[in-house]
Specification:
Number of helices: 13
Structural class: alpha/beta
Shape: globular
Helix content: 25-40%
Distance between the termini: 26 Å
Number of strands: 13
Strand order of the largest sheet: 5-6-7-8-9-10
Order of helices and strands: EEHEHEEHEHEHHEHEHHEHHHHEEE
Strand content: 15-25%
Oligomer: single chain
Amino acid sequence: MSQDTGKVTSIFHSVLPASDFPPDTTYTDHSPHILMPGLVDAHVHLNEPGRTEWEGFWTGTRAAAFGGVTTVIDMPLNAIPPTTTVAGLKEKVQAAQGKCWVDVGFYGGIVPGNARELRPMVQEGVRGFKGFLVDSGVPEFPAVSSTDIALAMAALADEPTTLMFHAEMIPPVSDSVGDDVQWSLPPLAPVGPLNEYATFLASRPSSFEFYAIAQILSLAHIAPNLALHIVHLSAIEAIPLLREAMANGIKITAETCFHYLSLAAENIRNGDTRHKCCPPIRSKSNQDGLWEELTDEGGCIQTVVSDHSPCTPNLKLLPASITNHTGSDQTHKTTVDQDDEEDGKGNFFSAWGGVSSVGLGLPILWTEACRNDRDVSIEDVVRWCSTNTAKQVGLEHRKGDLAVGFDGDVCVFDDEAEFEVGVEEMLFRNKCSPYQGRRLRGVVRETWLSGRKVWEREGRGFGEGKPGGRLLLERRE
């Protein structure tokens, strides 16, 4: 790798001795560890500016580097202002200057009334666009109707971009086909104790995802050349719908997340709102179905991402019984503490929804693959988390592979070592994650960005260096 250009200059497919290189060559034999492309996490909420008490560019990208992630793509919401205008994008870019330890790209958002902003944001370098078909959880990023989606598709029909959707939506309860049934509505009223995960799960059934995807596909004819993408797919019931659309020539793919592939509803303790996210974590059998689709190279699930969506711990409303629990016990708590019930602690409906995991994804995925005897190789992981995620955001010409001319982004991965997730392993701002206390297999020993080491597990850590990540603002081609 060139220290001047930051690019890969040559590749050798076997380990050569130091004597094969000029005397002044910096040489390290990382055997028996694996050298793999840095991960491209294409779904991260960094929340800056505006909600930096939740996360920020400095902490979020350090956490990414810890886990071998060399590129993150920042979502358009949870920062204030959201990235729904060129002005909002420029404010976010300004906030990121000098704070990024890895390379960072940006998504734009689609909200009611901003269709005229979309093409200008493409020119300014956003990597894609995201919209919600259900309430996003923050007032400055409202959900879109079918009319809004149609306008966005028309505006982006011939642009080199990807239009992505948070696909949850309440199915209509009448024969109406107008927008009255296509606007986002609240989730179903809870039936059962609010601190029981089963109550929350029942309020957001798989039919929400199925119907939302059906609505998106019904509009795909407006922009047949536009790449469509479903973010954080959790319901296997939607897979046949997506496969049929792909077979009919619709350009659509889906991603799933580390938490859907490793956590199961049956094992979530009452009140443990660290697991709350939308769409929700579903059953173990559903998880197995996601793995089955993921491991089919021709399937609709092409990528795996973190959807790191943090908040301050108080917004999770964790009861004391969970706050004080740092082990890996997965048994249900079958009784409700009266004090917790009275102060709203452990309420899955009031707690913020989002799982914190940026920088932990590689060992989470590898642990699940190894411990459950899934037929998964490191090459598969690279495809899901580097190659295909880079392609999704238009960076396949420089990211996602170890090849001559590509960015010198390298993850040195020890696939045998294990570690327990503690505070020291959660470099994101708020140490509140369902993975705390879990033992994971696979340790990132070093992370290299553009030919330079930015982090190492043994020794200097981040050392005395300064953030060297770049903002990826070149227009997609």
